[in-house]
Amino acid sequence: MQPTWTSIKEAVRLLQSKEIVAIPTETVYGLAGNALETLALAKIFEAKGRPTFDPLIVHIAEHSTLNEIAQNIPPQAHTLAQAFWPGPLTMVLPKKPCIPDLATSGLPSVAIRFPAHPIAQEIIRLCGFPLAAPSANLFKRLSPTRPEHILEQLGHKISGIVDGGTCSVGVESTIVSFKNETVQILRPGAITPSMIQALVQKVTIQPSNSAPGKAMASPGSMDTHYQPRTPLHYNTKAYPKPLPPNTVRLAFADTQHPLQATLNLSKSGNLLEATANLYDYLHRLDRVPHELILVDPIPNEGLGIALNDRLTRASLK
Ligand code: AMP
Ligand code: MG
Hints:
binds magnesium ion; binds adenosine monophosphate; DHBP synthase; 14 strands; four-stranded parallel sheet; alpha/beta; Rossmann fold
């Protein structure tokens, strides 16, 4: 039976009453709440089972809101906002006092994004306040790119889900911070290092937190994240032998492999298409009786950097 999705008007009413609602964005679906109200923020952490040391991204729908919630904004941030907002870029900037500490896990900085999705923009504008919106999934699990994905994980824990169809980008936003003159990429996404490099002098890519004992530049970037329940093995060249009987293979391009492809992220090897399909295909393969998901290697360039990041985190440790 088709569930009744929440209308934009009803979502706004719920959000104004400090409830939490899943809304579409171009990256993945977000679990939204009033970013200025601690009660709404607490409900987000609670529903996701997300630890409060993992700060949230605050979503805005006007360029001018940036100056209301952040301060000491470096010129590079304005350059990137002009180029990539609205869009899948999140910027970490010193926060103004109106942003509660709960949103930023006590950090003096806040992560801010202006999403491109027209429904997200309309909801934020009608609410009249910014929305905190982490991905609408349980902590560490697969992000949702279709409204049905949310029903499974969070349906009974939240006040509504707005149907905006399939997310066009399909992976979480690129996150950057600023240090002196340098733009640091904390999480790869659809705004690639070379796109940023074209506009600012210095760009560094923050390595993932795999190195033991290293301080986390970005508190939520755990080694294991974005995981299906079914064990996932990324890069099939080193797959375990013998394979469990119910192994499924998520292919990319026309990679040769003894196991037939169950689904193909992009037969033509198109990275945009593969990114848009990633979470939906993982949701489809993450089913009983599947015992292992093998994923073909994807070139680690351009958008492929974000895919490699997510698949490495999704894989068996
Ligand atoms: P998401 O889980 O997609 O909502 O992204 C939130 C992530 O943004 C967190 O897990 C952090 O990695 C990053 N983030 C949010 N706020 C900050 C901040 N103030 N400083 C550094 N990273 C942040
Ligand atoms: Mg998430």
